[in-house]
Amino acid sequence: AQRNKMVTKALVFAAIVAFAAAAVVPAPVHPEEFNPHPQYEFTYAVQEPMTGDFKSQSETRDGDAVHGRYTVLEPNGMERIVEYTADDVHGFKAVVSHAPAGAAHAA
């Protein structure tokens, strides 16, 4: 009697697991299209005097070449300016400079 109860419980559990597994339907797979010459461009800026958060970034991509620039206001009041390029020949290269806050935008 005890053995029959255990077998029944095991069968009920197996049936529940099988039902739950059968109810899962995988989502259809949509392969992403390959773009042999990707292009994009973006720019943004944050200017929040209450928190002292001042930064900006702009970037463009044309095929395998990326060019960009970002600025960040550092705690000492200087603006860090990073200009960068990246491509499949030279890799990633960045030039970092500093200027008084706002001077980089005045040019």
Automatic annotation (TrEMBL):
One of its GO terms (cellular component) is extracellular matrix. It comes from the Eukaryota. InterPro entries: CHIT_BIND_RR_consensus, Insect_cuticle, Insect_Cuticle_Struc_Prot. Keywords: Cuticle, Signal. The keyword Signal applies. Residues 1-22 form the signal peptide. Pfam families: Chitin_bind_4 (PF00379). One of its GO terms (molecular function) is structural constituent of cuticle. PANTHER family: CUTICULAR PROTEIN 62BB, ISOFORM A, STRUCTURAL CONTITUENT OF CUTICLE. This is Cuticle protein 8.
